[in-house]
Write a structure and sequence with these properties.
Layout: E1 28-32, H1 39-47, E2 56-60, H2 69-79, H3 95-99, H4 101-108, H5 117-122, H6 140-143, E3 144-145, H7 147-151, E4 155-163, E5 169-178, E6 184-193, H8 202-218, E7 229-233, H9 238-252, E8 261-265, H10 271-283, E9 293-296, H11 300-308, H12 313-319, H13 332-341, H14 344-351
Helix pairs in contact: 8-9
Amino acid sequence: MPKEKILLFKGAEKSNSFTSFKGNSYGSVVLDEGNELHEKAITESYARLAAAHNPKRIWLINPKNPNHHIYKKFLDPACEKDSTVYIHYKMDNNPFFEENPEKLEFFKNQWPNKNSVSYKLNVLGLRVNDGKIIYRDFSEKDCVRDWNWIHRQEFIRLSIGVDVGYTDSTVYTLVGYTRGWKHKVIISQFYHKNTDDDELGTEELISCFVEWIQNLYYRDSFRIITRYMKVKIDDANKGFRIDFKKKLKFYADNVLNLKNFAIQKAKKDEINTRIFYDQGLMAQRTQEGDSRYIVNAKCVEHISAIQAAQWNAIAYEEKGEYVREDNSRFEIGCLDSSEYADSPNVRSRMKSVHPYQEFD
């Protein structure tokens, strides 16, 4: 018996992570966020317990699709053995909520639809096979509003997400956040599909941006568009971002005080983090019965993209992994650009707000 116990913390999410602990012998292993770890690392961690007298493998996991490869390869076979103990830990079991029951109700009430995928995942902690459709909680009745509704809102922040596709589509999306971080609103969207007969270059796309802003100001009477605003462009379009910044200076003194627009690189979370965030907002309702995710009825391409978005069939059915399909069957650029308009900080603020909360 060793005189002291040593606890090692090692990363295990990459294909070569196992090399950091290969060759040693351990007594037990704790696999935190187990279904996010790489199979090679998991297999190697099992092998490192071969010399242990009474080895223990402790998994801490979040619910996933029941077809997820980690369940199929490691957990489901283990649960068939008598030596395995499975504990289903729900939100109700959290000691913090036992001491603060009002907080428990705070979070549960964010998902009024008890049959929604978001409620089953976040509150009940169930493994949910929700099919290939991604945004099941999106409905035009609760999530789509007209300009009249938008004009009645008080926006505390506005930002524009830009997704440039020289060979497919380019999309600019104006996203607003209402007072108290109550709603995320897709206010307006510029969409252009490049074809052989109608292919736009960088300068033309920037001119389209200026014209779009002018239309918002004059045609749609959205006058707060000239406030200080961040325009967030995907880092993959670095060259476009540089040209965009230069060209916008040319228009700044002549077109609607565009000098108030700050051009930035989009700060992006991992794609599924962005998807699950929007899913959650769609499922939540405010006291007035609106979804917290609102789309202007004029943004028809965005609505169509949400309704058509699917998980990749092979990754979903064979491995239980969530990978958003990226093909010509729907305009993924509409979704990407609206996600670029967010930031990790904004998503954190939106998640911290109870939709029924009264705001000052």
